């Protein structure tokens, strides 16, 4: 069985040194538990904003833990110690610019400073790696997108594209609760699964 493995990395000087409690990993776990109907295993890491540590952590999660998806939170802004995108690009095989573009589009609906995030999406080997901003609320915002008062998607969250991307990377078939975020695939890629 090729179980879906997801790496979660919270990158924060203050949370990793105990100045405040990390809210990034719990928010990521809560969102994934609410959304994924496919069983998954997680690997979590809480680390400071140090480029070499971020690079090492991402490589370990992809190369040794064999994660199919890695979500980072924090360190995407313009401050001197915000180096998550730089570390992510340094270990990438290929860049997926659409993820960064779409996240900033979505985030502009929530904060006027959305363009301050340098967040990127990349592929390393079998894994899709996505940077999310550090504000814990931005996790749900960017993954789930913008909805109207009836829950209809106005701007699709980036997670709509994640299952098909992982499928194209020959990873497990990921299914989601469409009430949270509907996974989109072309008809030819849709598989019948037991409900
Ligand atoms: N892991 C976290 N847990 C709780 N809150 C966080 C976390 N990371 C960031 N935040 C909140 O979001 C804000 C913006 O995040 P950012 O990644 O820019 O952090 P920062 O200001 O560089 O500081 P630090 O790296 O020490 O978290 C922080 O100032 C903090 O209020
Ligand atoms: N969805 C969303 N995107 C967001 C934000 C937010 O609160 N929600 N904060 C913005 C701000 S204020 C900054 S500085 C950048 C970078 O944040 P980071 O350094 O915490 O990653 O993300 C931006 N993108």
TrEMBL record:
Enzyme Commission (EC) number: 2.7.7.75
Domain (MoaB/Mog) ranges: 7-153
Pathway: Cofactor biosynthesis; molybdopterin biosynthesis
Keywords linked to the UniProt accession: ATP-binding, Molybdenum cofactor biosynthesis, Nucleotide-binding, Nucleotidyltransferase, Transferase
Principal EC category: transferase
SMART domains reported in the protein's UniProt record: MoCF_biosynth
GO molecular function: ATP binding; molybdopterin adenylyltransferase activity
GO biological process, alphabetically ordered: Mo-molybdopterin cofactor biosynthetic process
InterPro entries (UniProt xref): MoaB/Mog-like_dom_sf (IPR036425), MoaB/Mog_dom (IPR001453), MoCF_biosynth_CS (IPR008284), MPT_Adenylyltrnsfr/MoaC-Rel (IPR051920)
Reactions accelerated catalytically: molybdopterin + ATP + H(+) = adenylyl-molybdopterin + diphosphate
One matching Pfam family: MoCF_biosynth
Family: Belongs to the MoaB/Mog family.
Described purpose of this protein according to its UniProt entry: Catalyzes the adenylation of molybdopterin as part of the biosynthesis of the molybdenum-cofactor.
Name by which UniProt lists this protein: Molybdopterin adenylyltransferase
Organism: Dryocola boscaweniae
Encoding gene (name): mog
């Amino acid at each position: 069985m090729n179980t879906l493995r997801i790496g979660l990395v919270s990158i924060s000087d203050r949370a990793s040194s105990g100045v405040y409690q990390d809210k990034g990993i719990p928010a990521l776990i809560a969102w994934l538990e609410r959304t994924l109907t496919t069983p998954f295993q997680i690997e979590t890491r809480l680390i400071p904003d140090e480029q070499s540590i971020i690079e090492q952590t991402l490589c370990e999660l992809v190369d040794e833990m064999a994660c199919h998806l890695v979500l980072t939170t924090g360190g995407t802004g313009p401050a001197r110690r915000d180096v998550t995108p730089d570390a992510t690009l340094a270990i990438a095989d290929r860049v997926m610019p659409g993820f960064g573009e779409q996240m900033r589009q979505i985030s502009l609906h929530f904060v006027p400073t959305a363009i301050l995030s340098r967040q990127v999406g990349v592929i390393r080997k079998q894994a899709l790696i996505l940077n999310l901003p550090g504000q814990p609320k931005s996790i749900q915002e960017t993954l789930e997108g913008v909805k109207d008062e009836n829950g209809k998607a106005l701007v699709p969250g980036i997670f709509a594209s994640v299952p098909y991307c992982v499928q194209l990377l020959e990873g497990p078939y990921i299914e989601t609760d469409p009430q949270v975020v509907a996974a989109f695939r072309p008809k030819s890629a849709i598989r019948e699964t037991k409900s």
